[in-house]
Amino acid sequence: MAVSEVNSGPGTDGSDGGTGTRAGTDEGTGTRAGADGGTGTDLHLDLPSTGSRRAALLHALRSAVRSGRLAPGTLLPPYRALAADLGIARNTVAEAYAELVAEGWLVARQGSGTRVAERTVPASPVRVPKRSPAREASARKPAARARGPRFDLRQGQPDPASFPRTAWVASVRRAVNAAPHEAFGPAAPQGRIELRTALAEYLARARGVRTSPERIVICAGFAHALRLLFGGAGGSGAGVLRGPLAVEEYGLAFHRALLGAAAVRTVPLPLDEQGARTGELGSERAVLLSPAHQFPTGGPLHAERRAAAVDWARARGGLVLEDDYDGEFRYDRRPVGAVQGLDPERVVYLGSVSKSLSPALRLGWMVLPDHLVDDVLRVKGEREAWTGVTDQLALADFLECGSYDRHVRRMRLRYRRRRDRLVRALTERAPHIPVTGVAAGLHAVLRLPPGTEPSTLKAARWQGLALDGLADFRHPEARGPLREGLVVGYATPPEHAYPAAVDALCAALPPNGS
Asked: Higher pLDDT residue, 395 or 386?
């Protein structure tokens, strides 16, 4: 058993305050560890005096976490301090910590020590009747699965642990110190000029967008942009655009629901290996595309189809809405520039930092045709009610000082390694499962044999995986063939949990011949 305590000073438990070890204990029983390791954290562990020390330590730590006595986020003593107080080898403690990190009980980060994983949901600390060993073993696995998924491979977010905290704090400090006094008054709805200027330069350089700061409106992300364009402020229905709206036949149901709530009819546009079949656009007023990396099936929109979408918009007086949700992340191909560069008056370019930095920042942008800027600002209102000025100023500095480029390059390399590990594991363990959409982005699509997607998702849940099936993204009126598969977000798990997540995924896949 174990209990976490905070060492408030010398003599709190009858000891001399220096070692943190209980007086009168011996052979590893009733030992408090960590006070002389410089962490300020004591840990009381009861270990048997016989048997494997490593197995006993693993059992004690797992029991402490499972019972809730070591709460999520609790800092553990350094392994050297714990080894010294228990009287066991340092390697024994280090290996136990490493094994519990791999299993997901603990997390370890450079400079911040080893802690109890935040995902752990302890049972209520109540007295449980004793069970026989056989009955205890049979009950343990279902109880562990009841806590929820062990691994999150859902698409849609970067690894939260990768957020560049130090560089971001530095940008906040510089931006706040340099900001004029008026920046901290009521905020204008278009967004800070510092951020719009930095975005105009970055988007032109990195994504081929043709714009000026006057054509950019800051928003709280892609969904907020859709609400402003179609639903009006607060979903009032007084948006700038009207339906029907053509959409790719596979996409986020959340976006379709948001448009439906604004009484916008969506018309599915078929997909094939070259992307959306833009030549089939008809009487719709606008089309929503993800041309750099179709979501979720993957792959860029073919150059001829990009041009066809712009030609359609010119001929019909319509608009192309370009969702550039992860355009910075490409691995095996040349960068694909924005469609907006073909005709800035017929394309609305939409982007955000949700994939490149964090969805928690709630920062996005709309690059608008000149004739739409005033209409969007009218819908947004007289004051900014969605995005904070401090974050806008910080992002402007983050872009201008080069920190954004450095972070994207670093994450591009990290995600490429994760993608390579996934593809390598599938090649070795499930060569019959095709993998697509991996030349760019933060997710991959695993194509499944017909009729196997529901059972594979069930097997994934049994393995402790949170995972999306491809069928969930299909438009209910889609005319194209049904595709079955898994959408695997390889950017989502923390670094230490990714290898085990890939192993669990491979174990859930249907065997060859299914």
From this structure: 395
